């Protein structure tokens, strides 16, 4: 059988994804600027990168940082089109 589901971690991940989606939506609606949205994403990724050496679950922080960085890169490449 697979790894048991960590309900607290799942809720936190869902909340974080919702917040990220909200920033992107506000940027798409020109409520906040794209630069500010990218800054928030970059700060979030940096926070996870900073936590890696101090964490008991470094792989989770690394994965979160990579995902956030991918979202930011998608935003940047979409702006170039």
- State the share of residues found in helices, binned by percent: over 70%
User: Could you spell the SSE succession in H and E letters?
Assistant: HHH
Task: Please count the beta strands (DSSP E, at least 2 residues each).
Answer: 0
First-residue to last-residue Cα separation: 45 Å
- DSSP summary: helix tally: 3
Taking the sheet with the most strands, its summary is: none
Secondary-structure-derived class: mainly alpha
Q: Per the principal axes of the C-alpha atoms, what is the gross shape?
A: globular
Which value, in Å, is the CA radius of gyration?
14 Å
- Bin the strand percentage: under 5%
Which whole number gives the mean pLDDT?
87
The parts where pLDDT drops under 50 for at least 5 residues are none
Give a short synopsis of this structure.
By secondary structure, this protein is mainly alpha-helical. It contains three helices and no strands.
In words, what does this structure look like?
- The chain has three helices and no strands.
- With 81 residues, the chain is mainly α.
- The protein has a domain at 32-81.
- Helix 1 packs antiparallel against helix 2 (34-51) and helix 2 packs antiparallel against helix 3.
Entry keywords:
single chain; mainly alpha; 81 residues
Summarize the topology:
Elements: H1 7-28, H2 34-51, H3 58-80
């Amino acid at each position: 059988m697979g790894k048991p589901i960590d309900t607290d971690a799942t809720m936190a991940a869902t909340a974080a994804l919702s917040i990220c989606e909200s920033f992107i939506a506000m940027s798409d609606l020109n409520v906040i600027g794209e630069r500010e949205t990218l800054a928030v994403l970059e700060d979030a990724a940096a926070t996870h990168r900073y936590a890696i050496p101090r964490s008991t679950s470094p792989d989770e922080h690394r994965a979160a940082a990579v995902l956030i960085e991918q979202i930011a890169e998608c935003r940047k490449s979409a702006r170039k089109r």
